[in-house]
Amino acid sequence: MVRRRVPRPSELAPLLRPAPFTLDRTAARLARAASIHDLRRLARKRAPRAVFDYADGASEDEVSLRRARDVWSSVEFSPTVLRDVSRVDTGRDVLGKRSALPFALAPTGFTRMMHTAGEQAVASAAAGAGIPYALSTMGSTTAEGVAEAGAGGRHWFQLYLWRDRAVARDLVARAADAGFDTLLLTVDTPVGGNRRRDVHNGLSIPPALSLRTFVDGARHPRWWFDLLTTEPLTFESLAAGGGSPFEVINRVFDPALTLDDVAWLRETWPGALVIKGVQSVTDARRVVDAGADAVLLSNHGGRQLDRAPVPAELIEPVVQELGDDAEVLVDTGIMHGGDVVAAVALGARAALVGRAYLYGLMAAGEAGVQRSIEILRAEVERTMQLVGVTRVEDLRPHHARLRSSIAHSRHPNGGRAPGA
Known about the structure:
By secondary structure, the protein is of the alpha/beta class.
């Protein structure tokens, strides 16, 4: 028999610990966000559907994006126990300079569409965290504005080559004058990918008030209020005109981009040169021989060619091919700090994250970006400790493996059992 009694007040007091009261509902929501997926849910509530889908979606059937995330999920770590992991150093040199974490914030277009604070908020958060931030040519803030907002931080510039090369020369010169130390040339966008969510939503740049967006806007009044009462959403680096993202890309991007352009940029750009969008070992070698300091293994976050190679699966063969000739970076599908740790263990110098911080930006502006970095930082540190590694530099291939690659080697039809 269980004997019951009335608890004493002194016994109840330690149990009654209400959460600290705050009038800042956004701060309270961010504090409860324990993962990037939590921030994604907040972003979905705060941003209009067309805006959220632009950041969240990919091209065609979105197979490339799903595959990328599946491969990161397939990572199996091999921990070493009985190690002193009370202190962890998450920093490492990336392209000649120190980064406090083994990841950077990737370039994203039309960032002020996600939140009116836009690229300036991202640059400020990155500078505060001691990590690089890459401004997109399709950004909605100038290179000079990013340099000012992220004073003291490290800035990279992502370049699309336009049909008018004079525009590219001007952008590169402005980035150099503003103190940007790295140039990322994107080479996987000869034409725009077919992003069906944008088509279905009727997304235009800048956003237009159709009947559908008006109805959706009624559910997101704060977003529309911010859009209509701040500076107009435009391309700050150039006058590219409006239309759908697909129309803008096809109007101004040059599909005749070749290795000669890589060599030209190598002669023109004084800092580190990264080629973004490399998707094969052969192309990695070609661009490095043409003068690149690093390759960024990327399928554009699944937003260009659907069913493209999965960047994570290219890390090991590309590292083996390039050796010490160039650094290898990777992006696409990274949603957890453990993905970053796995990328480094497999041989990447660092990873780039895009959607992960855009969810935070949509959810709460700069505070949301800061929260996304905090979440990823904690996951990187905790994963390293549980793996038994105290320095990023000590991560090696034996610490992580892709089980998807193991399955692929067992089944010639891509890891599926016959008839699956």
